[in-house]
Write a structure and sequence with these properties.
It is built from no helices and 11 strands. With 129 residues, it is an all-beta fold. Strands 2, 4, 5, 6, 9, 10 and 11 form a 7-stranded mixed sheet that branches.
Length: 129
């Protein structure tokens, strides 16, 4: 059974940093998994933040986080990280780790069109002004 477990959320002041972790387990396929992050703020729709291609080491980011967030992985630990710098109050949201076995177009991650196979339970990030 595939499981995605997030950690690292918390409360931080604007301009600060946090690093989220997503520990993945149960993957048995050699397919090109895409693992990344979504977030959902209160009263808003869930939005794609960033994704990482396990086999190709390709990354992609939403325009709202480019230059501030960095996604990376530690294959030995089966963990994907999201380093978040220069945080803003508008980054406040529940952040979800997600995995997709087939992402026909990477842009779909950011426009609500990606087929997500597995979700984590989420971790809260709160940025105070």
């Amino acid at each position: 059974e595939v499981q995605l477990v997030e950690s690292g959320g918390g409360l931080v002041q604007a301009g600060g940093s946090l690093r989220l972790s997503c520990e993945a387990s149960g993957f048995t396929s050699d397919d090109d998994w895409i693992i990344g992050w979504f977030r959902q703020a209160p009263g808003k729709e869930r939005e794609g933040v960033s994704w990482f291609s396990v086999s190709n080491n390709i990354t992609s980011y939403a325009d709202s986080v480019k230059g501030r967030f960095t996604i990376s992985s530690d294959n030995a630990k089966n963990t994907v990280y999201l380093q978040m710098n220069s945080l803003k109050p508008e980054d406040t949201a529940v952040y979800y780790c997600a995995a997709s076995i087939w992402l026909v177009d990477g842009r779909l991650w950011f426009v609500g069109g990606a087929d997500i196979d597995y979700w984590g339970k989420g971790t809260q990030v709160t940025v105070s002004s």
